[in-house]
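Review form for a predicted model. The reviewer records the input and the model, then writes brief findings.
Reviewer: anonymous (R2)
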Amino acid sequence: MMRACAAGLTVLASCPGAWAQEASGGIAANPLYLLVQALVSLAVVIGVIYLAWFALRRLSQRQAGMTEDGPMHVIQTRHLGGDRWLYLVRVGKRTLVIGGGPEGVRPVADLGEEEHE
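Model under review:
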């Protein structure tokens, strides 16, 4: 995927020079042509930014172990105000209540192996 992005950026880097050469004469001086050219360029830049964002998001989720096939799942989250949060987390068959705040993350309660909804 990175090679495809690098190849796409190489092609994009060579395009503005070609467009600048066309703008110096004939049909390229048409305002409608310049508007379409600017919109296409904008769409390409937005597309590259979106692809980079998507790739970085997927990469960071994998590194953080946030894939859906793991044994840990966050069932529910509650904001308690300020920087304090409660998380209901299922790890395997166990259900835990975890508190998070400026002082760190710590277990609040172990609800055992019952099914909690």
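Findings: The longest strand covers residues 72-81.
Further findings: The chain is about 45% helix and 30% strand.
Recommendation: see findings above.
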